[in-house]
Amino acid sequence: MNWKSALTQLEGAYAPSTLKAYYNDVRAFVDWADCNRIAAFPADAEAICQFIEFQAPHRAVSTIQRRLYALRKVHHLLGLSDCLNAPEIGLAFRRVARRNLVRPKQAAPITKAQLHDFIEAQSDTPWGLRSRAMLSLGYELLTRRSELVAIQTLDLNRQPNGTLRVLIKKSKADPLGAGRLGFTSLETTRLVDEWLAWRGPGIESLFCPIYQGVPINRSISTTSVKRLIKTAAKQSGLSGEDAKQFSAHSLRVGAAHELLNRGVDAAAIMRAGGWKSINTLSRYLETAEHNVWE
């Protein structure tokens, strides 16, 4: 069995994006080994250390760390001796990590005021109705774009006070699909209702494509969410350069910042966003404009 066949054993157990990343990671090592006339599998500790140093000027530390994990996974799948736990490899990685001190990139947060401008800039068309509902719901549920487009109409449950309880199913941090609950404001409920009134019944996905003015019974793509954010930023009056700083993740980051500034405690923010680790939440909040002395 070669390394490509070995990785196919992971299909279904990992997300397609993760498998694609692992394939590219192992391919990078195999190509480097071929160029240096080194046997890729089984790899030895010296070769792995050389690969780490080769990658250091060109790749983020997190990427190198993932590539080491992918190589370890392939060795296990092939039944080969694993040298990845050798102390010299750990030391080589620590040297690179200490040398390449770079703050992790984070999507620019969308403030509550900006969200209002983005929503107000939408047209009074079916596409505008959908965009308003997606922007407002994605913000209040702190969703990733994959989570937002995966919401089904049946995942919405109207509360006695008129707001919505939404079941957010399988996500990046919840691969087994246990799900989490999110809640909306009355304003977001109104925007979702306006979209549903136009879209009509009989469509499984909450947000569906529109073709020639007709709703199509399938889910909208994740790429559409990214495009929506950037387009809405420009429509609100921001310059092209300012609009570029926003991505689909800006809804999630911005909402986390907003909750922090409102004084919501960390446990409640973690529950709202589906974070399992306070360390992960801290990375989201580290650029928040929150002065504890005011």
Provide the descriptors you would attach to this structure in a database record.
294 residues; mainly alpha; DNA polymerase, domain 1; hpI Integrase, Chain A; 2 domains; 14 helices; 54% helix
Overall description:
The protein has 14 helices and five strands. It has 294 residues and is mainly α. The chain folds into two domains: 3-99, Tyrosine recombinase, N-terminal domain (DNA polymerase, domain 1), CATH 1.10.150; 112-285, hpI Integrase, Chain A (Orthogonal Bundle). It has a three-stranded antiparallel sheet. It has a two-stranded antiparallel ribbon with strand order 4-5. Strand 4 and strand 5 form a beta hairpin. The longest helix is centred in the N-terminal third of the chain and has 20 residues, at 16-35. The protein starts with a helix and ends in a 9-residue tail after the last helix. The model has no long low-confidence stretch (mean pLDDT 88).
Concise summary:
54% of the residues lie in helices and 5% in strands. The protein is mainly alpha-helical. It has two domains: 3-99, Tyrosine recombinase, N-terminal domain (DNA polymerase, domain 1, Orthogonal Bundle), CATH 1.10.150.130; 112-285, hpI Integrase, Chain A (Orthogonal Bundle), CATH 1.10.443.10.
Total number of domains: 2
Instruction: Report the end-to-end length measured between terminal Cα atoms.
Output: 62 Å
Sheet with the most strands: spatial strand order: 1-2-3
CATH class of the largest domain: Mainly Alpha
Q: From the 3D coordinates, which CATH architecture of the largest domain would you assign?
A: Orthogonal Bundle
Number of strands: 5
- How is the CATH topology of the largest domain named? hpI Integrase, Chain A
Please indicate the percent range of residues in DSSP E strands (runs of 2 or more). Answer: 5-15%
